[in-house]
Specification:
Blueprint: E1 11-15, E2 18-19, E3 29-33, E4 38-42, E5 48-52, E6 58-65, H1 70-84, E7 89-95, E8 101-111, E9 123-130, E10 134-136
Antiparallel strand pairs: 1-2, 1-7, 3-6, 4-5, 6-9, 7-8, 8-9, 8-10
């Protein structure tokens, strides 16, 4: 019997060459494409066709703790982009305990996140728009000593 393990602390997120840290509890990164790879059309006679989309754009959402030093990195990118257009950077997300990899050569901060301040530490949700995302969603590694 195989035992597979996922370790959230082995998910690496690199934005513009800088490792991101201070990830929020719960879901801290999500990757989504803007469109389906294919659009299906079925005619009245039951004939089905599909159209391939060339659109591989999408978004990456990073959820950081309010105390994360990576908020400074993302804020600096957003400001640089607004001021000079120099905020487009590559992003790499890799599950070190598995085989999933997500990458883009061109991502930018969509907008500064909303900021809340109160008695408790809150999260900051950063959305990065991406010109083209490549995804490989793999499984996780079997523990040593297990078969497979």
């Amino acid at each position: 019997m195989s035992v597979y393990t996922y370790a959230s602390d082995e998910v690496r997120i690199i934005v513009g060459g800088v490792p991101i840290s201070g990830l929020a509890d719960g879901t801290f990164v999500s990757v989504a494409r803007d469109e389906q790879a294919f659009t299906k059309v079925t005619g009245a006679d039951g004939t089905t066709s599909r159209a391939k989309s060339a659109n591989r754009s999408g978004s990456i959402t990073l959820t950081l703790s309010q105390t994360s030093p990576s908020n400074d990195v993302l804020s600096a990118l957003a400001v640089a982009d607004e001021e000079t257009g120099a905020g487009v950077v590559p992003v790499l997300i890799k599950d070190g305990s598995g085989r999933s990899v997500h990458a883009t050569d061109a991502a930018w901060v969509q907008k500064m996140p909303d900021a809340e301040y109160g008695k408790e530490i809150t999260d900051r949700e950063w959305v990065l728009d991406c010109a083209r995302i490549t995804n490989f969603i793999g499984g996780n590694t079997a523990q040593s000593g297990s078969s497979e």
